[in-house]
Amino acid sequence: MAGNLWKPYSRVPLLGWFFGALVAVTLERLAGAPLAQFLGLQKIPVLFGFSDMLKTPVSIPNVLLYLLAVYVVPAAAVTRLGASPANGIAAALYRFPMAVTAAVHLALLYAVLHVWAGASDYRVLVLRLTLIAVMLTLSLNVINGYMGEFSCSHPGFMALGAYCASVLTIGLFVDAELFGAASLSPALGRFLFPVALVLGGLLASFGGLFVAIPSFRTRGDYLAIISLAFLFIVKSLIENLEFVRGPRGLSGQPDWADLPTVFLWTVLCVWSVNNFVRSTIGKALNAVRDNEMAADAMTVDTRKTKIAAFLFGAFWAGVAGGLFAHVMRYVNPGNFGIQNLAEVLAMVYFGGLNSVYGSIVGAVSISLLGEALRPLEIFKWIIIPLLLILVMIFRPTGLIAFRDLDVASLLKPKANPGEGG
Description:
The chain is mostly helical. It has 2 domains: 2-105, no CATH class; 121-408, ABC transporter involved in vitamin B12 uptake, BtuC, CATH 1.10.3470. It has 18 helices and 2 strands. Helix 8 (154-173) packs parallel to helix 10 and helix 11 (259-278) packs across helix 12. The radius of gyration is 23 Å and the shape is globular.
């Protein structure tokens, strides 16, 4: 029965799903508030109604009706009825260069996210932090998944990028008490902001050398200890630097990490990580993971491979840290401690090792689940670990493991034009 219901949707291309989602979120923007009032809800559910249902369980039927009326039924109807035209458009787009086809799909995806997030500032914040989590998870999966090491240094890389980018933007473009008058016009800042992020990533890569070099002689638990020591060293160093206000934290970052900026950097991160792991050096990473001695015997330069993986992963963690600092507009050493490490590791292993798909799914799932369970306060830190334990028991490699992102296959039409039924 379920298979028969799903069969028509199996022929819907990705473009069709994006159209359906766009119709649903547009409907919410136009009629969500009146519908919520009609159903007895105080306001539009901010995060698919999970928080509302947890705060007031008696509202569960009304929230479910809202979700059905706004999201499920319109999206299902549009994708089902529009399968044939969507396949026709997808087939036409597929004749263009892949970059053009991908750009159209990304524009539609951004439109969906932009309209959905526009309902509240809270949604915008959650979405930006979720995209940053995707970048962190992807970069850590390069080391812990594709190379098979167990590194705990990612919050340290993130801290280096966050503080480097913050010092540059505040010091150069903001009249701040800590750094004095701005050296450059703030009007130039938004255009030079990418430079600050890249420099933060490069500083994080330089820090990655201090983890990569010892990794030549250590593996497993020893590497985990070395990388954890690196995390504590970076955190302690920042806490004792009065130049960046030590444990009091650094504030006043310009509000330049808006949703379009974070989205574009996330797309660039996904594209570069996917190309990296599918390249020759990516295959070498897998060889090092499976058997380092055998890889070395087969002329794989294991030293170069490890350095490349650590520096590449550290770079994107540093960029994510810079974006995080400018989203929150405040950072302190406590943002980059053990809890942050546990969250990123949970995203990697929940989503799946050696998988770009898995990293995206893990980051989005854990981020949104953490926000949805926020009303439970301390109990959410019981539910999420229990969920992770169940995943580790029944899916030891994660939900979607060992799957790279095949863009051509993902964007192609699912049926010939005219076969939508």
